[in-house]
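[09:14] KT: can someone run the structure on this one? pasting the chain below
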Amino acid sequence: MTVREVGQLAGHRVFNADRFLDKFVGRESLIRQYVGSWNGQANIADVATLDVPRFKQYLVGGNGSGKDELLEGLYRAYDLCTERGHEDLLAACRDFDYDPDPNGELPVECLSLKVRTENEEAFNLAYDRNALWQAERFSIYRGPSPRDIRDLPEAAERFQSSLEDTFREAKKSDRVLVRQYREGAYANFVVYHERRTRAELVFDQTPERHHVSPLILRPAQQDFISYNVETGQVEIETRFSTEEMVLRDRFAECCLGDGTFFQDPATADLLDLSRIADDDFDMPVDEGHSASLVEVQFSLPQRHNPSFLIRSRDAMETLMVNHLRPRLRGATIRRVVFKICFPDDRRGKRVELAGTNRIKFKRATHAEDVFRYLRWWGILRERNATPLRAGTARPDEASDLAIQGIGAFS
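[09:31] RB: done, structure tokens below
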């Protein structure tokens, strides 16, 4: 018998259910424990002797009021069956002082389902962190002053209720789910827009072929919000720019008590791309790291509004050689791309900046370093901070507040 998913929402990996369930051969107690947690709603006889082949047969022809929810849980467990998901599971379990695999012998499929069964809070934390890790394009905003969120779970409930009313009609979302967790100075939120969709499974058998198409809730879209309670800065990622303002202002209203918190024009311009036109602009980095400007797009205040795009392994040198560097001082710099290389990433990380608050880069690694350098170079404006001029000492670690950006590049 083979099982494969032939229909899935965009952005989800194909659920190879055969490969997933076959990992439990010899570890059937984990499946029995998971099925048993549904308190009889799954309607499976003799759970104490349930094995992998019979569980697959149940998924083909079984019934019970909890079957779709049971399958939904399997899907969520499978979502974390990646190298990154494994790391997030282990980290979340450590946070809860919970060790589901003392000998370190469980494959990630078994570990994920075991955590889902035994410690749902730890599983949800791992799931949310894994989702937030995918953030790549974001917009940043800053309020007039730092403000704490008094009761994070209660604030998240208000936020969820507000978004449900908004997106039920606008996005036809069957459910809007807001998950939250703290990480240092950051209050992180993941907004799941979920829909009930048919996740078709095909079971190839001899002599018959069975199709199973349960209706289960799956994330159709995920938005991310990360708010720093020490700086009053929020980073937002969402798929559509029209929704960015809704998320920003509803978050401010529900979590900070002021829907206009991020609307002050005086704090709107967080990126200063004109900094690269200064004569003393430099890009100092730590030993073993390197940085270069590889793209710059600018327009000149001339008749016909000419626009130029410079691409080069070293755009600063290219501008100098072609006598264009002085022109930048009177230009409107619309977009720049830096390439920052690290010892474990020689290919380099592309960091794209545009406008006054839009940033794009893969933040899976070295996000803190990227934001630290942008602040050092004077491109990312910070309260009471000055750019690191060429030849001056770098700030010490105590005064160097690294920013971990998450949010939206629309």
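[09:33] KT: thanks! The first strand starts at residue 2 and ends at 5.
[09:34] RB: yep, looked fine to me
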